[in-house]
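ugh ok so i messed up the first submission bc i forgot one of the chains. this is the corrected input, ALL of the components this time, i swear. 345 residues overall. if the numbers dont match what u have on ur side tell me asap before i send this to the collaborators (the ones from the other lab, u know who)
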Amino acid sequence: SRRRLTLAIESSCDETAVAIIDVDGKLLANQVSTQIDFHARFGGVVPEIASRKHVEVMVGVVDAALEEATAALGLDGGVLEPSELAAVSVTQGPGLVGALVVGVAFAKGLSLAAKIPLIVVNHLEGHLFANLLTEPDLKPPFIFTLVSGGHTMLVHVRAWGDYEVLGETLDDAVGETFDKVAKALGLGYPGGPIISRLAETGNPRAIDFPRAMMHSHDFRFSLSGLKTAVVTYIEQEVAAGRTLNLHDLAASFEAAVFDVQFKKAWEAIKLTGVQDYCLGGGVAANPHLRQMLTEKLGRRGIRVILPPQGACTDNAAMIAEVARRKLERGEFASLDVDADPNMTL
Ligand code: KG4
Ligand code: ZN
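and heres the new structure output, hopefully the right one now
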């Protein structure tokens, strides 16, 4: 028999993730299998490896999710079968094309075999909907900042599905910049968590790094100059025979990135007159960014909503949040749907 459950698959980059959500938004399973260890030695995600790893682990992650949901529902008549689901959903894009194709092909196969409808989800909308895991009653209009490994975007969410992109990065994404700085310091991959841990005990005012586009009076960002400034600083210190204070460096780098993020978010809020603000993408896991925006915007009377810390980096729970609403609306995809690596909001 059919249950009002949606299974969601996410494979756009280096996490193979599967979640199962019920019609009311209760998360019954949330599995993530990360490939980070396989990519770390190369200092970044190797697309070919990502695709192969998704193929390797996909069935196991889906099985684990079905078992987790079975336990959560307290079923004792055996493990939940795919044919008992109301729909299967999958990230269609954006992301690495070979990685996306694995998820899309698997979801199509599951749809065909289990005779359940297929739903496709935009990964960026998934990062936005991660906020609904914290605040299910969140309603537009509001301002949303997406800061991930691939994107840096300031968005005016006018209504669900009506997204006005106010500005984007002209070069590198914020997460990408964290990764590149960590790589320049030989600290490993991904850089975000490493740098944010170092920054905990650093002085954010120790080094005055450039705040590019801070006063550009628009909502565009530029991060590549900051990356160059950090690399130049490291080279100068090393050449002068001084030992780097990694904590101060990390904290000062974060401050340069986050000052610009706050300034532009606040300007977007004032321009649109919204009362609510939310954040998404891997960098939204950063404790300093979370705390700073909550404090500074909170002080200005803005309600700040953040995704659960564990739902900022890529996961399938956020894909499931989008999919269950599409299920309610009967928004299904046909079986000839393709992965779309260049999808935007
Ligand atoms: O959203 P995500 O998992 O993948 C994309 O859709 O791109 O974001 C990954 C990015 C990486 O660049 C990673 O370094 C960054 O998020 N990240 C962080 C933190 N945790 C992950 N950046 C800053 N601080 C963190 N704590
Ligand atoms: Zn992502």
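quick check: Residues 5-128+313-329 form a domain with the Nucleotidyltransferase; domain 5 fold (CATH 3.30.420.40). that seems consistent at least. The CA atoms of residues 11 and 103 lie 6 Å apart.
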